Amino acid sequence: MTGSTSRDIAVIGGGPAGLAAAEMLAGAGHRVTLYERMPSVGRKFLIAGRGGLNLTHSEPLASFHQRYHPAQPPLAGAIDAFSPQALRDWCEGLGQPTFIGSSGRVFPKSFKASPLLRAWLGRLDTIGVRILTRHRFLGWDADGSLAFETPDGRLTVAPQATLMSLGGASWPRLGSDGTWVPLLTGAGIKVSPLKPANVGFSVPWSDVFRERFAGTPLKRVALSLGDETVRGEAMVTADGIEGGAVYALSRLIRDEIEAEGEARLVLDLRPDLTEDALMRRLASYKPGASLATRLRKDAGLDPVAASLLREAAGRALPSSAGELAALIKAAHLRLLAPRPIERAISTAGGVAFEAIDSRFMLKARPGAFVAGEMLDWEAPTGGYLLQGAFSSARAAAAGMMDWLDEAGPDL
Ligand SMILES: Cc1cc2nc3c(=O)[nH]c(=O)nc-3n(C[C@H](O)[C@H](O)[C@H](O)COP(=O)(O)OP(=O)(O)OC[C@H]3O[C@@H](n4cnc5c(N)ncnc54)[C@H](O)[C@@H]3O)c2cc1C
């Protein structure tokens, strides 16, 4: 323990941020109770592990920091203090060594979240963290105590310090539903509007295209908006487009739609070929070959890419090799709106950094600290989200211990 006094601490929200904070606080000798509204903790963490738990990323810290928007110095400081390597060491300490995948992303060797969560909960139990599930935070009572809805009725508690890690508003059935926003704004705390992040967008597909290609991947494409280009894969959905490459641009697309009413996404359907090379291939067709055959055989487009070209052109396709090549290298798609926040991977917006101090404590509520996705930052997929949750939680827990030490034993 940094000071000599063991305190009663409430952590509210049992996602990775809350669990990480609870571990640090209980490890330092405090009496920690974690309140979670769902019947079990870590539900989003478990879902994150479904397709491979991408815990963090191996790129150098300088570029790592640039993934977070808006740039928040306290968050950058938190990541320096509990770095991607520290997160990997922590994971290994729980018997789950990690590896770096081909894209630089870091995963546990087991690939899953469940063995890690099991070992983690075992450790929390050993160090005395009390977990109360089915306890929903309702806000503060007039005397400053915390109110919860529980299966046994309303409960109020008055810990010496509180750490909130209530998550964003994506995938609300896993527990984080963003209903904490009015509780905090009502208490005079500035919260930037919650918005979908790492999300798909609606596209006005023709009925024919939608019926034939919903659920079909667009492989090896490059997507651009303004100066940003991302190579990867996207997925055609019944009402739009989603997938890794779209998510990577989703902050910019979302902001463009907000400002302009729609965004023009530029697709390069053959990013591995120059426009010239493509034009030469398209110009050397056999006499009598149909346009469909030329697109398939000469340009190497699969059916979804060839049809998408028609969607983008909005008219019959040109037959000249030059015009076709230009269209294949820069097919413009109109994106009209992000999918709803419930369908997003993560949430932008949240408790404004100006509402907290350098210790992650709410200026309007001394003794109450905030961490994780409920803070106003966003980042792409790639492990940056979990790293942000862990690092901010540990920084907030450290901040709380500093504050408790300063407050002295008579708090
Ligand atoms: C499908 C999917 C895949 C993902 N994959 C990855 C990945 O591979 N890598 C990565 O870095 N990130 C990934 N993420 C994102 C990552 O899971 C989140 O960023 C992370 O879980 C945020 O942690 P948190 O603790 O801040 O919030 P959460 O995990 O959302 O936890 C918040 C907790 O607070 C509880 N809570 C909310 N309101 C109340 C209340 N009023 N009272 C009591 N409890 C409350 C919730 O029930 C929840 O348990 C993925 C997300 C999704 C949806």
Please characterize this protein's 3D structure:
The protein has about 400 residues and is an alpha+beta fold. The chain has 2 domains: about 10-195 and about 345-405, FAD/NAD(P)-binding domain, CATH 3.50.50; about 200-340, no CATH class. It has 14 helices and 20 strands. The protein has helices at about 15-25, 45-50, 60-65, 75-80, 85-95, 115-125, 180-185, 205-215, 245-260, 275-285, 290-300, 305-315, 320-330, 385-405, and strands at about 10, 30-35, 55, 100, 105-110, 130, 135-140, 145-150, 155, 160-165, 190-195, 200, 215-225, 230-235, 240, 265-270, 330-335, 335-340, 345-350, 370. The protein has a 7-stranded antiparallel β-sheet with strand order 17-16-13-14-15-12-18. Strands 6-2-1-10-20 form a 5-stranded parallel β-sheet, with helices on one face. Strand 1, helix 1 (about 15-25) and strand 2 form a beta-alpha-beta unit. Helix 10 runs antiparallel to helix 13. The radius of gyration is 25 Å and the shape is elongated. The mean pLDDT is about 95.
Put the structure in a nutshell:
The chain is an alpha+beta fold and 411 residues long. It contains 14 helices and 20 strands. α1 packs parallel to α14, α4 packs across α14 and α10 packs antiparallel against α13.
